[in-house]
Specification:
Elements lengths: L2 E5 L4 H12 L3 E5 L11 E2 L2 E2 L4 E2 L6 H11 L3 E4 L6 H6 L1 H22 L3 E7 L22 H20 L3 E6 L1 E3 L12 H10 L5 E3 L5 E6 H10 L7 E5 L4 E3 H11 L8 E3 L10 H4 L6 H9 L7 H7 L7 H18 L1
Parallel strand pairs: 1-2, 1-6, 2-5, 6-7, 7-8, 8-12, 9-11, 10-14
Antiparallel strand pairs: 3-4, 11-13
Helix pairs in contact: 1-7, 4-5, 6-8, 6-12
């Protein structure tokens, strides 16, 4: 049994990680400020975490010092952060404060209290400007948008602390994660959550460009399998969490629509330049966001090699896309029914 802290524990991934570790018998402490997390994510058939989670911000250093001093953690999973790309672009100061300064705060506590290991949630978005595929961990063209820039910067701080203090830190670069608890309610949800929500409500989903752009999608349970396996790492490492297989947005749409009984409902296709139209200020201020950047964000191709994860940790994803989407749709429709 390990004593484990999870930040961002009411989020899509953090909550399911908590449930899996709880089932494994680990002693957990959970933190979330609920700016993006949801109490619904904390309710599982066998356990309810709602009364156990600390409603605190990762930048609250007085609270964290007290918690670390009293709990004597073995492992910290740092999952907290602002992840929606347009939110980060729209409020870069807050994004940097939470994603970068918040990570440095956690790193310094890990150093100060002698935590055995830190596992940090990064993102495949750091590869947004890569042109060689599949993307491998040691080849990154520096990103342009705010969100991946905050994660890439945080990775550099993880490396700096690991080098200076010999702290074992693992940075997990998540591909496009999907599964039950995916956020389908926020202003601009991930593409699967968005399609499910619009079809559930009887709306016509809007896809941008031709819909033929391809992404690498990984199921959340497979991600958690790897997040647990890397506990054995005793050095600094960066690991892609991916399938290494690409699928088009049109194919994703078809699988979801067929499963929801909407196979005759076709999406509407729109231009790339207003992909973030729910954030009009990004287009109306004196320096509007670049149409070229928006086009690149819509059309970018993502495919991550998972060979390092296999060689070092014996991990391969096990969930088929069809099986994963079925579970995602079933759970999301139940959440939408309650909303």
């Amino acid at each position: 049994m390990s004593r484990i802290l999870i930040t961002g524990a009411a989020g899509f991934i953090g909550s399911q990680l908590a449930y899996r570790l709880w089932k494994n018998g680990d002693e957990l402490s959970l933190i979330d400020n609920f700016s993006y997390g949801s109490e619904d994510n904390l309710v599982f058939p066998e356990h309810d975490f709602r009364d156990e989670i600390y409603h605190n911000d990762i930048r609250d250093q007085d609270f964290l010092n007290s918690l670390f001093n009293n709990k004597h953690f073995d492992i910290v999973y740092h999952m907290a952060g602002i992840t929606p790309l347009p939110d980060c672009q729209n409020n870069p100061v807050e994004a940097v404060d939470v994603n970068v300064r918040g990570t440095v705060i956690i790193l310094d506590l890990v150093r100060k209290y002698g935590i055995k290991k830190l596992i940090f949630a990064s993102t495949s978005a750091v590869y947004e400007n890569n042109t060689d595929f599949p993307s491998i961990e040691n080849c990154v063209e520096k990103p342009s948008l705010v969100y991946p820039s905050t994660k890439y910067s945080s990775e550099q701080f993880c490396k700096a602390f690991s080098d200076a203090y010999s702290i074992p830190v693992v940075c997990l670069r998540f591909a496009n994660v999907y599964g039950p608890h995916i956020d389908c309610l926020r202003k601009q949800p991930p593409v699967m959550g968005y399609i499910i929500r619009e079809l559930y409500k009887g709306n016509i989903p809007v896809l941008h460009s031709t819909g033929e752009q391809k992404r690498d999608f990984v199921y959340v349970d497979d991600l958690i399998d790897l997040a647990i396996r890397v506990q054995k790492c005793n050095h600094f490492d960066v690991v892609n969490v991916s399938t290494g297989i690409t699928v088009s947005i049109n194919d994703i749409y078809k699988i979801i629509a067929d499963y929801m009984g909407n196979s005759n409902q076709k999406p509407r296709y729109e231009r790339t330049d207003h992909f973030w139209e729910n954030y009009p200020e990004l287009y109306s201020e004196p320096y509007p966001i670049s149409a070229k950047i928006m086009e690149h964000e819509v059309l970018k191709y993502t495919c991550l090699s998972n060979e390092h994860a296999f060689r070092e940790y014996g991990w391969r994803p096990q969930t088929s896309l069809e099986e994963g989407i079925k579970k995602t749709v079933e759970f999301s429709c139940e959440i939408l029914r309650k909303a």
